[in-house]
Amino acid sequence: xxxxxxRGPISAAVHDRxxxxxxxxxxxxxxxxxxxxxxxxxxxxxxxxxxxxxTLCMLYELHYRGFDGVDDALEWAPSLLAVRRQLEHRLESxxxxxxxxxxxxxxxxxxxxxxxVTATDxxxxxxxxLSREGSREQFEEFLVVRSLQQLKEADAQxxxxxxxxxxxxxxxxxxxxxxxxxxxTGHLHSELYALAMRACGLDSTxxxxxxxxxxxALAVGNTMSMLCLHRRLRGAAAGYFAAFEATSSIPSQxxxxxxxxxxxxxxxxxxxxxxxxxxxxxxxxxxRNLCGGLVDAEPALAGDVLWGARLCMALEDLAADRxxxxxxxxxxxxxxxxxADASELAMPTDRIDLQGGRxxxxxxx
Length: 365
Ligand SMILES: [Fe+2]
Ligand SMILES: [Fe+2]
What we know:
Blueprint: H1 9-20, H2 28-40, H3 50-61, H4 78-98, H5 110-117, H6 123-133, H7 136-145, H8 147-150, H9 155-158, H10 166-179, H11 189-199, H12 215-229, H13 234-246, H14 249-261, H15 267-297, H16 302-328, H17 342-345
This protein binds fe (ii) ion (2 copies).
One fe (ii) ion (FE2) binds next to loops.
């Protein structure tokens, strides 16, 4: 994908280094590190800050798909890893403030505690809003705002596999096999998401809408990447993932209903229908076997597992609140299209051209 447009001084510093690194390898460390350190002082809330979250997203993308024209070797450039570490440190502190560590669950009760945590999800509210009264434009925004995460669905959790053993590892692999379509091209959940986007006439190219995705939405994927990339945080990663899976099935039915009510092509509902059934199973596997197995093997991780689950709920609730607040007041939940002219940006939600030249032909090929 293309490098996104910077949103402030932090992303501008990293963007410039990524774009020019192969020309100036020796200047990477000092200038980037110092610029980021200064700019970080002005970030009030790393969880929702657009500049902060885009920067972290760019640094993580070096480990996923990379960027057009950017040297793949930069994935392991010490200076960029140092910047990533600075941002992760700030983000983790902010997340621990947003969602304090819960009391350790009593021995053997982590499964019940996880079940209790996931009962407080706001996603059914968003799903029922869309299925009841959401417009086509709002449903498309919903697809767009989650696209960076869902078009690489399951990839972050794959990093968790080598950090586990026994029952927990087997459970995660069983879930991942489903997420990756049992190895059948065209059935990967990321591909089903792309199918849904194309069915709505949206560009399903990975990263096509990155410039439109706000910081709080990027924070969901960034947090999952951070938890799965640090072995120290494996308990939280397992809990976060379990909570995500446990709260997906019911809202997915609402999204499938939205597709039907709006008269969108049936291909747009396949991803969601698949998750109604799959995530009902994944919920049990993730809570009982992945998290239960991990805590049985490493009891000291029980508190981290529960914290990860609560964190997932907190970030998803924050995002759901922002989307609903925007839609219910007739606004878009996306950032302005940087390629649109000023008059287009002033349009109300129902007239915004979501695609900004990136609408695909409305086929589902
Ligand atoms: Fe999935
Ligand atoms: Fe799943």
